[in-house]
Specification:
It is a single chain. With about 220 residues, this protein is α+β, with helices and mostly antiparallel strands. About 15% of the residues lie in helices and about 40% in strands. It is built from 3 helices and 12 strands. A 5-stranded antiparallel β-sheet has the order 3-11-10-6-7. A 4-stranded antiparallel β-sheet has the order 1-4-5-8. Strands 9-2-12 form a 3-stranded antiparallel β-sheet, with no helix packed on it. α2 packs across α3. The N and C termini lie far apart (about 45 Å).
Length: about 220
């Protein structure tokens, strides 16, 4: 039913995966058309996002107390390697609501090797409202997979939650072209009132030409 997961993804928590995966979706929009994009790569064009692996966040970026317990199984679809499946369980010990802010830092891989630190920063207050209003079909799909109403609000009381076999083929209108490159994304979920870090995830991924044999690669515009 599935192909083997890249090393480093299996065994990571569902919150860890969710932090990184949700941020990648936002980054695709933010890295399109900005002047900063032109520093990433000499080439751009039709693309696909290729996940590499997840990593633990640096010690200083991690939560100081445990506010959840979670696990997840993530695997590729047998028929379409660009589609991923996620099944997971989580127990939250706190109320999770729209007081959560997402802070993300993107590092880009330099042409001469090594990471360009703090290449791009992203700050998203009321992150659940951001997802719910910006990508309502994605929100509805996630809620349905968690056995909640598709139009569920942005407050989640303490308790047990399960997601069953949600797929990554979301109905999102991504840009048709983007600048290619390798990126490292570190995303934190914080309490916007107290500033406490509730979760942190780090993902390595690349934007690559969608079809190497048929897609023309365009030089970077001057």
């Amino acid at each position: 039913m599935s192909s083997k997961l890249p090393k480093g993804i299996a065994g990571k928590s569902i919150y860890h995966f969710a932090c990184a995966a949700a941020s990648v979706v936002a980054v695709i929009s933010l890295l399109t058309g900005s002047t900063a994009d032109r520093q990433i790569s000499e080439f751009w064009g039709p693309f696909k996002a290729v996940p590499s692996h997840l990593e633990d966040c640096p010690e200083e970026s991690r939560p100081r107390r445990k506010v959840y317990n979670a696990s997840a199984r993530v695997y590729r679809d047998r028929h379409n390697v660009d589609v991923w499946h996620l099944t997971g369980n989580a127990t939250s010990y706190i109320v999770v609501d729209d007081n959560i802010t997402m802070d993300a830092i993107i590092d880009s891989w330099g042409s001469n090797g090594g990471w360009k630190m703090n290449f791009y920063r992203m700050h998203v207050p009321k992150v659940f409202t951001f997802w719910r209003t910006g990508w309502p079909s994605v929100w509805g799909k996630i809620m349905s997979a968690a056995s909640l109403p598709p139009d569920h609000g942005t407050t989640f009381p303490p308790g047990n939650y399960s997601i069953k076999d949600i797929t990554s083929d979301f109905d999102v209108h991504y840009p048709k072209k983007i600048f290619y490159g390798k990126f490292r994304l570190t995303a934190q979920m914080k309490n916007s009132v107290t500033g406490e870090v509730l979760a942190c995830g780090r993902a390595i991924f690349s934007f690559v030409p969608k079809t190497a044999k048929t897609v023309a690669v365009h030089s970077k515009p001057k």
